[in-house]
Each structure stands twice: as structure tokens, then as C-alpha cells.
Specification:
The chain contains 18 helices and 19 strands. The chain has 567 residues and is an alpha/beta fold. α4 crosses α7, α9 packs parallel to α11 and α16 runs antiparallel to α18.
């Protein structure tokens, strides 16, 4: 979702690549501005779809939870405010995840550079999850394909969500053959025939969780070191519906039920998550995922899923809850109010929520699907506990039900794709401009994410990349422009030297904040010491905008902790 291949969720970049087509230009090319005029379907048949009430409420929540105040202070080289400077704020990327299912096989083996599967999708989304090739059996059998696709995603500025460490769906060929046999199941995906062996299932499954998390925690591919590349792992998928590993390790064939075993509250479930937490880097989240948990009115699944969430919250580690959102026909759709009620129900357990595998299929008009999608999409985005909306599949040709949510075969956009682009890159996209006031400030409510701020005066222009990540605190940034009586620091835009240091601070990651306080070119413990020793001084406080790492408008101990965590 960004034109800068070096930018990614939570990161910043210094500038766009020369020659790249801009996001807004791209959208004008596909004609998103006129697309909405042809969408006038009857909706999904719910009362909420026939009323503007749901949308007014959603828009109010979006303004509250998805935007934050961005204040730009423009000063000259003497630190004096500059009024009437022109300021333009152009969004580059959302903080929110908008993603799709990436087929490693299709990417690596069936497409070449320039194919829409490679080019179109990376323009429209900022995160991917693998439909198959991070699943256990696929990973063991085709690790090279999984690795090449993972490297491609990172090279193209896409985040990667790990789907999945363990999924006990034998019919989907997601389990290695020796494990299938040890689960006590006679199936073509096995090797030698069923022979229930709980210890083998336990040993192999725990070993695999460690192996795959370790592999991508310090990932290398063809001589390039990528570091940690998976933002979060689904540790177990569809435990409500496919609890085969938990059954087998507890001595029950995977396809049989046991009256005294409740898989969603089994101690083994917590053990798997504890094991994943020990294996994963500290900044990698752990998730669960299941279907019928928001779509339709499947009370059994919602009840069991909530019990699973409660159990993991009390007995192990759970950060994110995935809601698959496979809507198969009109009858499975939910109204805006029901969507909010279900999201509230899960969010009360202090977890973050993701829509993970959205699609809407069935024999009803695509225009009607688009109208209902707009309601569901806006409602999910408006809920403060959600962080992601990920779709299943690209075009009809590549969708598991041959009915992709956004593209026809041949990559012509469906009406729902026009809705998506209009919302993500227009209605929810910051593109504002104005002039500074007498105090040298210009303020705007910006959607959470990365923005390019350009300040122009008669002396020239200055461009900064700024991230707004907090809807309450927002972000304050100071931009220095030419035009004063004489530049301090020998014409250097950096803040003055801190304490007894001879060198001025530097900004190693180019985000406009100065983490290298002693100016030695890297962030280290001496910078933390300098911060602690000088944070109360007048010289430091007068340059607070350079050291306000959490964007709350002041220099405090929270910034010191942020600096420490960067080391």
C-alpha cells in the first residue's frame, strides 16, 4: 500500500522512490472517483443497510479512533515561528492492516514480474498471509517456495502474518503423513496407516512450532538477512472445529470425540501457546483463528470461541483474535449492529481483533455484495479493538470458491473493489494543505499511519516523513526552514549537542526524531544515559519535539523507555 519498497507497517522512509507512480495518481488511473456512482444495489437485506444510521455512527467512531491530531510547527533557523508557510500533508500508508491471502505457489511458480498478481495486489494492500505455504506440511515439503514468497513480500514493503503453526485439518493435507497416522486416522494424506501414538504427535507438533517460529525470527534468503519477518503467528487454527491435535495427544483418535475432553479449555492448548511465546521474539504477537465466529448466527461457535479466548487469557498468552468472515450467501451476512455486538463480545477480554479471511460468495448480484461489503467493512474499521481486515484470495481464477471478493477472472475490479479503494484511499486517506498561522503552526486531523509533510516558503521546501499512531495524543513535529538571520549549528538542521557531547544528535532511521544523542552514528546505552541525565534541562526541553518518541507532546520517562527498547 505504499510506493516506497523500504516502508512498512510501523516504519518510516526518507522519501519516495524517484519515478514511482503516486498513490493518488494510481487511483485516478483506475477511475475510483466515478466508480461509486454505479453502485446502487439493494444491499444485503438487513434493516441497517437500508438506513443511514449505522453509517453516521460508524463515521463518528472512525473519526474518534482512526484519526489523530497532527500539528506541524514551522520555525526558521533561529527557532522563530514562520507564518504563512505552505504546508501539504499527503498520506503514504495506513497504520491499519489491509491484506490478502498470498499463494506462494502462484507467486513463485506461475507468475513473472509485471503480472497483476504481483503488481496490482501490492498496490492495494499492505500485509499478506499465506493461504497454504506456512502450514505445517506445505512448509516441510516446499520450504523454498515459502521462503521465496516471504522474501518477495518483505522486498515489496508488505508485512507478513503467520498462518499457521498448527492446523489439524487432515482433509486439507495440512498435516505431515507420519503425524496423520499417529493421530489414529485412516486417510489418504497419511503414510502407513493409522496407529495412534500420542507421544509422536506431541513431540512432532511442539518441535514444529519451535522450528517455524525460529526460522522466520532470524530469516535469511539468498544471502540477504531480513531479521524477524513475521509480525504475528496464529499458533493454532480452528480449534473449535478441528481439535485433532488436542484429541490425539490426549489419547483420542483425531476424528473421535471424548466426553471428558473439552478442546477449547484443554491444558494442552495453553501449553502450545506457552511454547510459542517462549520461541517467538518479544515483539511478535500470538493469535488464534476460527470460522463461524462472526458470520451467520452460529451461537455454538461464538460461545466456544469466547471460552477459548477466556481460557488462553487466563492460562497462557494471547494477543490477537482472528475472525475468518467467510460469508457464503445473503443469509450469512450480519448487520452493522450485530457486527458491533460480536466485536464487543470478544474485545471485552482485552485482546485485539482481526478479520482474517474475508470473502462474500453465493448467487446474488455483485452490486448487492458490494453494498453490503461497504457496511461490514466500515463497521469493522470503526471498531476500536480491530487492527486488520484481510481478504481471502485475489481474483475469481485464484479463489478457493472461484468467487474472489475483489477481482473477476482477468483482473477486472469487481464493484466491491471500487468500494474498497474509495474508502481506503479516498475517504480514509489524508490529503490536506494550508498555511501556518501567526504562531507558525498548521494542524490537521490525520488518519493513523505514515504521512509526507512538505513545508514550502519563498526560500524553498522541506519534506519530512511523519507517523501518526495515537488517536488521542496525535503527533507534533517541528520543521525548520531557511530564511532566518543566520543558521545555528553551522547550518545543520539537527538539534544542538546534548550535555557534554561534542557532536550533535543524529536521526538514524530518518523519522525526524533524534535517538542518537551523542552523535556517534548509532543508538546505544550511552544515549539512554544522556537522555536520563539531560531530560530536565532547559536546552533539552526547548528541543523537545526532537526527542518526543511516543508523540504525546512532551519529553518524559515513557520516551526514555522507548529509547531503551530500541537498543
Amino acid at each position: 500500500m505504499t510506493n516506497d519498497t523500504n516502508a512498512h507497517q510501523g516504519g518510516v522512509s526518507d522519501e519516495k522512490r524517484d519515478g514511482d507512480i503516486g498513490r493518488r495518481d494510481y487511483l485516478r488511473t483506475v477511475g475510483v472517483g466515478t466508480a461509486m456512482g454505479v453502485l446502487g444495489g439493494t444491499g444485503a437485506g438487513t434493516a441497517a443497510a437500508q438506513s443511514d444510521d449505522w453509517e453516521a455512527a460508524a463515521d463518528e467512531r472512525i473519526q474518534e479512533h482512526r484519526t489523530g491530531p497532527l500539528e506541524i510547527e514551522v520555525v526558521d533557523e533561529n527557532g522563530d515561528p514562520v507564518s504563512d508557510a505552505d504546508v501539504a500533508v499527503e498520506m503514504q500508508d495506513h497504520d491499519y492492516w489491509f491484506g490478502y491471502a498470498l499463494s506462494a505457489d502462484l507467486l513463485v511458480n506461475q507468475t513473472e514480474p509485471g503480472h497483476p498478481y504481483r503488481e496490482t495486489l501490492k498496490e492495494d494492500f499492505n500485509v499478506v498471509w499465506f493461504g497454504n505455504y506456512h502450514k505445517w506440511r506445505f512448509f516441510e515439503d516446499n520450504q523454498d517456495d515459502a521462503d521465496e514468497a516471504t522474501a518477495w513480500a518483505k522486498d515489496n514493503g508488505l508485512d507478513v502474518r503467520g498462518h499457521v503453526c498448527l492446523w489439524a485439518n487432515i482433509d486439507a493435507w495440512a498435516v505431515p503423513g507420519d503425524v496423520v497416522d499417529a493421530m489414529g486416522v485412516d486417510h489418504d494424506s497419511g503414510q502407513d496407516g493409522p496407529d495412534l501414538d500420542p507421544q509422536h504427535v506431541e513431540d512432532r507438533s511442539f518441535e514444529h512450532v519451535q522450528t517455524i517460529i525460529d526460522h522466520y525470527a532470524d530469516f535469511e534468503y539468498e544471502g540477504t538477512s531480513y531479521g524477524s519477518v513475521i509480525e504475528e503467528w496464529e499458533v493454532m487454527n480452528e480449534v473449535v472445529h478441528k481439535p485433532g491435535f488436542i484429541r490425539a495427544v490426549n489419547g483420542v483418535p483425531a476424528n473421535e470425540e471424548a466426553e471428558d475432553l473439552d478442546p477449547v479449555t484443554a491444558p494442552l492448548l495453553a501449553d502450545y501457546y506457552d511454547h510459542a511465546r517462549d520461541a517467538a521474539p518479544d515483539d511478535v504477537g500470538l493469535a488464534t483463528n476460527d470460522y463461524n465466529t462472526i458470520e451467520g448466527s452460529y451461537d455454538y461457535a461464538r460461545d466456544d470461541y469466547e471460552r477459548q479466548i477466556e481460557f488462553l487469557e487466563e492460562n497462557s498468552s494471547l494477543d490477537y483474535v482472528g475472525l475468518q468472515s467467510h460469508f457464503t450467501d445473503r443469509s450469512s451476512t450480519v448487520s452493522s449492529q450485530e457486527t458491533m455486538d460480536v466485536l464487543d463480545r470478544y474485545a471485552q477480554h482485552d485482546v485485539r481483533l482481526r478479520v482474517t479471511e474475508f470473502d462474500v460468495t453465493g448467487d446474488w448480484p455483485d452490486e448487492d455484495k458490494a453494498d453490503w461489503f461497504r457496511e461490514y467493512f466500515k463497521t469493522v474499521f470503526s471498531h476500536p479493538a480491530t487492527d486488520a481486515f484481510l481478504t481471502a484470495g485475489g481474483s475469481d481464477e485464484h479463489h478457493w470458491r472461484e468467487d474472489g471478493p475483489f477481482y473477476y477472472e482477468g483482473w477486472e475490479p469487481k464493484p466491491a473493489m471500487e468500494v474498497y479503494r474509495d474508502l481506503v484511499f479516498d475517504e480514509w486517506w489524508t490529503e490536506e494543505s494550508g498555511t501556518t498561522d501567526d504562531a507558525g503552526t498548521y494542524s490537521v486531523d490525520a488518519f493513523l499511519g505514515e504521512h509526507e509533510v512538505t513545508v514550502s516558503t519563498g526560500e524553498g521546501s522541506v519534506t519530512r516523513t511523519v507517523s501518526v499512531t495515537d488517536s488521542d495524543a496525535g503527533r507534533q513535529v517541528t520543521v525548520t526552514v531557511e530564511g532566518g538571520d543566520g543558521p545555528p549549528n553551522g547550518g545543520d538542521d539537527r538539534p544542538p549537542a546534548v550535555g557534554d557531547n561534542e557532536n550533535q544528535p543524529t536521526d538514524p532511521d530518518g523519522d525526524g526524531l533524534y535517538e542518537d544523542l551523542n552523535g556517534n552514528g548509532e543508538v546505544d546505552y550511552s544515549d539512554v544515559v544522556d537522555y536520563f541525565n539531560n531530560m530536565e534541562t532547559n536546552d533539552f526541553q526547548s528541543n523537545a519535539a526532537y526527542y518526543d518518541y511516543n508523540g504525546n507532546g512532551e519529553v518524559d520517562y515513557a520516551d526514555l523507555v522507548d529509547l531503551f527498547n530500541e537498543i
